[in-house]
Amino acid sequence: MKKFEKYAVDRIEGKFAVLENIDTREIKLVELLLLPVVKEKDILIYKDGFYMQDSIERRRRLKTIQEKLNKLKSVE
What we know:
By secondary structure, this protein is of the alpha+beta class. It has one helix at 55-75, and strands spanning 5-13, 16-21, 27-31, 43-47, 50-53.
């Protein structure tokens, strides 16, 4: 059984971060006061009532996105 959830920071809206659950695609608003310092595209792990940054997953996802963009550009 999974003991944590992963979220991508979709955007910041005022005092809230819009988070997307990576597995379920569910969207939720979380007050910035409850999060570490975040920016768009950050990946967060929610475990035991706390959010923590996952910089390794963030780098992995950004690299994958860049590779896909490069493939699309080479098709032209």
